Amino acid sequence: MKVSTLSVLEFGYLVKEEDQLKVPNATALKSSDFEYLEQRCLLPDSGAPYGKAFQFKLHRKCRVLQAQNYVGLLYLPSGQSIEILPKTGNHDDVPHARQTLLMMLQSLREFRHIELETADIDVLKLPLIEVLIRRFLKTVNQVVKQGLRRDYVPKQENLTTKRGKLKIGLQVKHNFVEKQRFYCEYDEYLPDIPVNRVIKAAMLQVQRYSKDARNQKLLRELLFHFDDIPSSNQPALDFARIKFDRGMGYYRPAISWSGLILNNLSPVSMSGRSQAPSLLFPMESVFESYVAMVLRRQLQPGSILKTQAASKSLVTFDKSKHFTLKPDLLLTLNDGQQCVLDTKWKRLDLNEYNFGLSQSDFYQMFAYGHKYLNGEGELVLIYPAHAGFSSPIEHSFDFSSHLKLYVVPFEINPNNQNRLILHQNISFKILRSVA
């Protein structure tokens, strides 16, 4: 039975099918699936990762599960899958949100090999799991087009003609009577090598989850080319044996994908105590990683950007440091000046009191300013841009005459320039000119 993938944006609601009319914009689930999720969310000790992804609430006198700041993919025991997509502010349509997530995932270490074809609108209409599977299959297809690697594989067989080296001990044991046979050890040039075995194992894994006809068709075609290659039954051992010799560069993307799939870092195999596969990312971490990736491309030459710096602590007690301070980004310019930047995945409302900024975030930035900048310099808080926050907040927030904090937007647009919009009063130039 074909099961569709349901989509929900951050902070969107899930409800039972019978309650859909009470919460019109919610995503409806079968009662059994909703109750399973609800139980997991109400029992956080046994509910990971669902307890992170959804929060139980009463909305319009109706029980709902609200998506939180986690994005990715969940499978339920019934076979139903749910993709949770980021809400960027300006666009609430599912294809755009999926495209944004795929673009941002490229900044994460495990997904840096993902290539997103932004012009392929048909692909972006697919559920997240099918998009990821298709990207994996395209890398395997590239391997097949350029040729499956072969290597000499040692074999031992009882043959009618002598080949290679005669194994005297085995010859005596097996052919004491049948002296016309030869128990030999020889090398054969075969595609049955670790690099091909792990790719086949990964393809068989994703075959269980793909519902898309094009993906299934491509899978069958690719598996035909691997027909004589056994699936790896010891992936960890086979990965350890892989050596990328000269001319094997075209294998790397497919092996990276296979590693994700077979090492429990992919949507098709990542499972925990929840007894169902899942792939979830905290958007705070994704946003931080993506901003860092974009900034590294745009910084002035000679500048150094460090993520999660941890050289300072809040206090020292008995000559030992306590309460390590870890700003998201520590920028050192080529003249030695430093700037602390922190990212927040939150939509600012400039009409709210204090613009919706958190007092605890300001305490945190105050500590960063005094410990990393010695109380003198400039700090930057970065929030995602949207229609109501497209330019920096007009004035700086001054901790003192020497320590200033700027609140600025970061534009996220898969079809356009992604950039940090800095305040004009920042005293030193961080970014090179970007057309």
Share of helix, binned:
25-40%
- How can the largest sheet be summarized? 7 strands, mixed
- Taking Cα atoms only, what radius of gyration do you get, to the nearest Å? 27 Å
Relative strand content: 15-25%
Structural category: alpha+beta
Compute the number of strand runs: 20
CATH fold-level assignment of the domain at 299-420: Trna Endonuclease, Chain: A, domain 1
Named at the architecture level, the CATH assignment of the domain at 299-420 is: 3-Layer(aba) Sandwich
Unreliable stretches (pLDDT < 50, length at least 5) are: 265-275
Average pLDDT works out at: 84
- Globular, elongated, flat, extended or rod-shaped: what is the shape? globular
Number of helices: 13
Overall CATH class of the domain at 299-420: Alpha Beta
N-to-C CA distance: 51 Å
